[in-house]
Please model this.
Amino acid sequence: MELDGHVAIVTGGSGALGQAVTRRLLAGGASVCVPWIVDAEASRLRVSMGTEGDKRVYLARADVADPASFDPFVREALARFGRLDILVNGVGGFEGGDLVSTPPDAWARMLTMNLTTTYVACHAVLPSMVKSGRGRVVNIASRAVVPPRGGFIGYTVAKSGVIALTQALAEEVRGAGITVNAVLPSTMDTPANRHAMPDADRSQWVPVESVAEAVAFLAGDGARHVTGALVTI
Model:
């Protein structure tokens, strides 16, 4: 129980990766707070993760892209558990298209879903970590944007921004007992990806459980000297 007594916030917890990360952190002994937007997500999350009635799980409506919605969620998590040790920024989304074919709304959507949510969550959680002198921030970026590539330019720029934010923030909090790292998965084996690419060779796809293991390691005390790292999977 390497995370026994620790408290985590996992954004994007309703997705395939988010659920795997939540299960892994719970298995390590942590309490986990997961924001949701759609009404049906809360009960579905508890059932699908096998956490119905688990007092270590706090689910509440909150929009991670909106500080006016997410900040109260963070305050309530602190009030319930008294501490916040881990932040996993797992909210994200993908849309293809080169620059000319990407309309402004799709561009804004990619930046909001992937980058703005990471900023909002870090901005809300970091003060409590600084105050306690300890914290682990793990951001989810993408192996597909290293090096930056065309064809899905909104996603590329947004996830590249997550990488830059990770490394810059790691420098800002260096020496404060807080680490900031990013996990960069290749194509993950999720229901959504199977639906989108039904004829693809899935033999090299990454199981979400493998990504969750990397997140759990970076969230634990064993990685206390690892910061600013980009872990490709």
Remarks:
- The domain at 7-232 is CATH 3.40.50.720 (Rossmann fold).
